[in-house]
């Protein structure tokens, strides 16, 4: 059982340690990383082609990888359901932390 209740967060700084706790499985973290990387690839593709329909792929790519990680590896419910904005910010910060080596793959 988690010691932190989701209703306790008043800032992203308070949320991020909980977010990392919910992403302790390395496979889940890697799936989030590749989902975020895919999201950036879709954005670049939309920018280069001008095809705005590609934006419809953003939630599929971004959340598809992440939710597979949660449901099959982490075996928990994604924080997106209760804290969508903090969770989205957490995805980008975790991506950066993995890229810079601050967070282990």
TrEMBL record:
Transmembrane segments: 31-49, 55-73
InterPro entries cross-referenced by the UniProt entry: Mpo1-like (IPR009305)
Keyword flag Transmembrane helix: yes
Protein origin, superkingdom: Bacteria
One Pfam entry name: Mpo1-like
UniProtKB keywords: Membrane, Transmembrane, Transmembrane helix
Protein name: DUF962 domain-containing protein
């Amino acid at each position: 059982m988690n010691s932190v209740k989701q209703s306790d967060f008043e800032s992203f700084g308070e949320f991020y340690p909980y977010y990392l706790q919910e992403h302790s499985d390395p496979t889940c973290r890697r799936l989030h990383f590749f989902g975020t990387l895919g999201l950036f690839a879709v954005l670049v593709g939309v920018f280069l082609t001008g095809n705005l329909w590609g934006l419809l792929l953003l939630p599929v790519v971004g959340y598809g990888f992440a939710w597979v990680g949660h449901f099959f590896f982490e075996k928990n419910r994604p924080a997106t359901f209760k804290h969508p904005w903090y969770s989205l910010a957490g995805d980008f910060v975790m991506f950066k932390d993995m890229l810079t080596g601050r967070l282990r793959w």
